[in-house]
């Protein structure tokens, strides 16, 4: 099975459902449908799409082709935004969307698009049915184009001992962002020089370890602000920044606004389908 999902672009598009759904730990969730499925995940799980096995983290985006089985092994309770759509092909142009994408701080943007689609879907049952239906197809295409042009996550680096250490550090920072971190401790455990690992990390990722960790924490915080009713103080603690002032400063440095402003600007309708 390829690593991409090909979606016809020239045909008419129909949204079948969109909304916010719960996933429970300890249960296998299996789906196979005739529609394309787009998910923004807010939990950790192992996801099998056909013969591809993916390690899903909060904020990850997946796109599943029709008639392909998806099997979730959820390791923490959570929810996901999900949209199912079908396309009537009319031409040969296609969009190439990755099956999986670590959104790198962009998950909030697609959640906003999905929440708008949910609102338009409800409006189709009201007096502005015709206009809402036209806007819905435009909104679907906008979301697909956004996914198409979203920068792809680079492949894991290969090479010597230092690159292996950088790959391990990236993986740990992405998954264990909520704990205290020290590059010196990591380097000591790896039996390497901390300054050298930091230099290799910057060359490989384009940023410092501190910035990478801060961005990852705020990415998860943004997702929690959009997807839960947790208090901001609770979200700050859950991503490893217990001090409210430090959390607010870190959030502003990445998002350009305070956590409260972000939540108010981005809040989706609470009665999504």
Largest sheet: 5 strands, antiparallel
Strand segment count: 11
How many domains? 2
Helix content: 40-55%
Gyration radius (Cα, Å) is: 20 Å
Overall average pLDDT = 84
Assign an overall shape: globular
Q: Provide the succession of SSEs.
A: EEEEEEEEEEEHHHHHHHHH
CATH overall fold name of the largest domain: Jelly Rolls
**CATH hierarchy class name of the largest domain:** Mainly Beta
The number of helices is 9
* SS strand fraction: 15-25%
Instruction: Provide the spatial order of strands within the biggest beta sheet.
Output: 2-9-4-7-11
Output the structural class.
Answer: alpha+beta
Full CATH superfamily name of the largest domain: Regulatory protein AraC
Distance between the termini: 31 Å
Low-pLDDT stretches? 154-158, 268-273
How would you summarize this macromolecular structure in one to three sentences?
The protein has helices spanning about 105-125, 130-150, 160-175, 185-190, 195-205, 210-225, 230-240, 245-255, 260-265; strands at about 5-10, 10-25, 30, 35-40, 45-50, 50-55, 60-65, 70-75, 80-90, 95-100, 100. It is α+β, with helices and mostly antiparallel strands and about 270 residues long. Residues about 155-160 and about 270-273 have low confidence and may be disordered.
